[in-house]
Design goal:
The chain has a four-stranded mixed beta sheet with strand order 10-9-8-11. A three-stranded antiparallel beta sheet has the order 1-4-12, with helices on one face. Strands 5-6-7 form a three-stranded antiparallel beta sheet, with no helix packed on it. The protein contains eleven helices and twelve strands. The longest helix has 29 residues. With 430 residues, it is α+β, with helices and mostly antiparallel strands. It is globular. The chain starts with 5 loop residues before the first helix and ends in a 5-residue tail after the last strand. Helices cover 34% and strands 12% of the residues. The structure holds fe (ii) ion (FE2). The site of fe (ii) ion (FE2) has 4 residues, from helix 6.
Length: 430
């Protein structure tokens, strides 16, 4: 893996770490402490956990002498079984202590110690690699902070705004068109010299039947047609597990939609807004995405189909840097919104690529063991009962995304900014 020179690493480190603190700046101390459901984490925990990652996987192997900021934090803010004791995920919201200001001190303390480490010539190539891994991990948690805080604020009858609403673009999108892709043997998986997670490798061949991808994401207007056509009442459209999920939870629309008389509104990070019919639908589960596709007479793409198309596109779109924190419509021609706006559910189960093995450092030794722990547990142990999502969304840092990047969540997940792109089989006429 190509790594940044140490002189480049520190500016990159500070800009990403400052972004985490900027994301929690609009929140109250109380906002930062609460966990709104077992799948989410308090903002305070995210800040502490990202600091913990650098302390455990970079400072502990390299700092001399190493002294943790607080011995008890080592289990409190860990999520890695391989690193020792952890605290139950669903009880993170019970940490009224330490206070947010102590967590901010922890964040600053780690930065000072990282600065001392990074200003020296690195002892080996593993130090910059572990630091870069920590930065990618931090960006993952930046996205989670926004998704989790959206869920928390949505539970409050005061419908608080995370940020004051600016005007979101509302141009009518172009009509949905189909883009043809020839079948054949195609390669997917990471091929470059930069950073990637182990689950993106090895690059390997996949056989694709000819297929078509929809030119844009499914919009709220499109999805409303499905609702009004009785989509949530028709069991024939749903996977049996999805139908059970729908019935037991009494779902009848995407998460965060609010019915106001005959109108629809939507809870967003910019407060409650009239539902933008032109914008991509988000916060749908895999079950809902699959049922919509079936109703439409299409299907969800496989991840290989998605990557084959996306690897031919420039990585650009509505990402977290835009500050909208909400998907926006596009009236551009061509295959649009593959990157940004909404994570796109694929029909591919999250599993290992052929020839995959959890990340291993090239050499043996204590530092290599740290790398194996830091990366190996990150992805390989999650390969059960989850589906792959691709492309990033409106709260994803742009740098996180590559054509080969694989996100993954259980089928029931809705609090992520997950949306729908349709696909279908394609037989060339004649
Ligand atoms: Fe993490």
């Amino acid at each position: 893996m190509m790594t940044l020179a140490p002189t480049m690493l520190w500016p990159k480190y500070t800009s990403i770490r400052k972004r985490t603190m900027a994301l929690i700046a609009p929140l109250s101390v109380e906002d930062c402490c609460v966990q709104s459901m077992p799948e989410t984490s308090p903002a305070k925990w995210h800040v502490a956990h990202t600091a913990w990652f650098f302390e455990t996987f970079v400072l502990e192997p390299y700092e001399v002498p190493f002294k943790p900021f607080h011995e008890t934090f080592r289990a409190m803010f860990s999520s890695y079984n391989a690193s020792g004791e952890t605290h139950p995920d669903s009880r993170r919201g019970l940490f009224t202590r330490p206070s947010l200001s102590v967590i901010q001190d922890y964040h600053r303390n780690i930065d000072e110690r990282m600065h001392r480490l990074l200003r020296l010539p690195p002892k080996d190539e593993m130090l910059p690699m572990l630091t870069i891994l920590g930065l990618h991990h931090e960006q993952q948690h930046q996205e989670l902070i926004l998704a989790d805080i959206k869920h928390l604020l949505s539970q409050n009858p005061l419908t608080p705004c995370y940020q004051m609403p600016g005007a979101l673009p509302s141009i009518p999108p172009g009509p949905l068109k189909w883009h043809d892709f020839e079948g054949g043997i195609r390669e997917i998986g990471y091929a470059g010299e930069g950073f990637c997670y182990d689950n993106e490798s090895p690059r390997h061949k996949e056989y694709l039947q000819p297929y078509q991808l929809a030119s844009r994401l499914v919009t709220n207007s499109d999805y409303l047609e499905f609702i009004e056509a009785g989509g949530y009442e028709n069991s024939a459209l749903w996977l049996s597990e999805g139908w059970d999920w729908l019935k037991s939870n009494q779902h009848s629309h995407p998460m965060y939609w609010l019915r106001k008389g005959v109108d629809w509104q939507e809870f967003t990070l910019n407060g409650v807004l009239p539902l933008s019919l032109n914008a991509p639908v988000v916060h749908v589960s895999y079950y809902e995405a699959d049922a919509y596709a079936r109703w439409f007479g299409a299907r969800l793409p496989t991840e290989a189909e998605w990557e084959n198309a996306a690897s031919q596109q420039r990585i650009a779109g509505n990402f977290g840097e835009n500050g909208h924190f909400h998907p926006i419509p596009s009236d551009a021609e061509g295959l649009v919104q593959l990157y940004g706006d909404a994570w796109e559910w694929t029909q591919s189960s999250y599993s290992a690529y052929p020839g995959y093995s959890p990340a291993k450092a090239k050499a043996d030794g204590p530092i290599s063991a740290v790398w194996d722990k830091a990366v190996g547990e990150y992805n390989s142990r999650s390969m059960v009962d989850q589906y792959v999502l691709r492309g990033g969304c409106c709260v994803t840092p742009l740098e996180r995304i590559r054509p080969s990047f694989r996100n993954f969540f259980p089928a029931r997940t809705r609090w992520q900014f997950s949306g729908i792109r349709l696909a279908r089989d394609f037989a060339k006429p004649g």
